[in-house]
Known about the structure:
The chain is an alpha+beta fold. It has a domain at 155-299: CATH 3.30.1330.60. It is built from six helices and five strands. It has helices at 2-154, 178-181, 191-204, 232-248, 275-281, 293-299; strands at residues 163-168, 171-177, 210-217, 258-264, 283-290. A five-stranded mixed β-sheet has the order 1-2-5-3-4.
Amino acid sequence: MSIFGSSCVSVKKFKDLDADYLSANKTNELLSQENRDLDMVNMELNENVLRLSKRASSLELDTINLGIDFRKKVRAYTDLSSSYEMLIKSNSTTMAKQAKENRSLMERLGQMDIDLQERERAIHSREQDVLALENLLQLKDENLNQLKNSVASALLGFTGEGLTVEQRDGKLYVSLENSLLFASGSWTVNDMGKQAINELAKVLAKQSDLQIMVEGHTDDVPYNGTGIIKDNWDLSVMRATAIVRVLSNNKGLDAEKITATGKGPYSPLVENNSPDNRAINRRTEIILSPNMDELMNLLD
């Protein structure tokens, strides 16, 4: 009885063990399958790890290259920034200098504009003065021509007696040979001379703005007289003074506007190489000059 009982237990345990074995075997197969699956996964993971490792190496190399390039760009940026700052500073200095030069130029241009305006006004004023001067010169010439005609008409009776009326250098020259006025070696005006001078004085008395110069001239023959006259120069002065006295005795002639001067033999008209030429050089010239004050004021 006890043997049967022991045998029954063994069979049951065997069956349990067999069931456990089958279960364990099945579990083992499952585990093996899972292990194989895990091996596959592990293989795939290893492959992925390898790929990732390669990718990481590539990325690391790219990172290194990017870092190098980045540092180059940083240096380039720093250099460019420094250059830019220097350019800004240089440009600021240049602009400041240019602005200063521009201000100086504008000031110069402004001053030049002022100068040009002043010069334009001066030119306009000068043009007006020139026009006025031309008008005065024309008027002076017209008056001098009228005076010449009046003098020539007044002295018409003495034509051929060694008297000439000539206009030159803006003046009127009334030239009288000394034979018409004086005896040889004398400074006393004769009657014909006084008549001629008085006729001339009537014309001159009507002129308000006229300067009168009386010049005495001789030839080169030395003076041989005695007394207060020493030479031809003295004689020419005395003759000019005598004519002035005759002129100033006429009413309307202002003696202050009459000047006497003697040139002696030193301003001949022709060479003193013949009696006729010496007669020409022995003369008294009454030089009539219009008042030039207005002209001088314009020229000043």
